[in-house]
Write a structure and sequence with these properties.
Length: 215
Amino acid sequence: MGRKNKPFNRDETPKLPFRKVFLIATEGKTEGKYLSKLNERFGDIARFEIIPIPPIEKDGSSSPKGVLNRLNKEKKNSNKNYKDNDCWLFLDVDRWDKTGEVGRCGKLQEVITLCEGKNNYNIAISNPCFEVWLCMHQNNFDEKRANKKCTPQECKDCFGALRKEIGDTDYETLLSNLQSAVENARRLENNHKIPDKPGSSVYKLVEELQIDNNS
C-alpha cells in the first residue's frame, strides 16, 4: 500500500521570533564600532538588529541636539518601520557639562526634555565619555578605579591599555565580559539623569537587548 503524503499544514512552519530593531545615534565613531560588534556577536541569537548612526563631518552634528536631529532624520527617511522599535541616543557629559541657557548641562538637559515627549526614545549618557563604559568590561573596575579614570583622556588611555592587554582589535574578548560591564555600571549608578560621577547608562540598552552572555 502506497504511503499517503501528509498534507502541508501552514501552521507547522517554524516561525522565528520577532527581531526588534534598535536605531542608535552616537556622538563618536567608537560607539558605532562597539555597537556593530555587539550586533554581530549577539543579534541573531537574541533576535535584535542594531543600526548605528555615526556622526558626520559637519559642525554641530555631534552636539546633543545634532545627535537627536540625525536620529530623527534617519527614522523619518528609512524604509524600515521603527514604530514599535526603540530609538537611542548615546551622549557624553565631558563636552556638554556646562551652564547654558537652560541651566546646568543645558545642552544635555534640553535633549532629555525633548526625548521625554517622544515614544520609544531613550538616552544613554556616559560620564565623562563612552570609553568609561568600555573600561567597565574589566572585572575589577570599581568606584575607586572609576574615580582614578575620571577624565576623558584617562578613560581612553584605560581602554587603549585594555585592548592592548587582551590583544584583540575586534572587541570579541571585550564582549565576553559584557555581564561584568552591566554589573559595574549598575553599582556605580547614582540615579541622576545626567550622571555627576564616573558612570554610564549604556547598560540599560544591554538589558533591553536581553543578551545571554553565555551564548
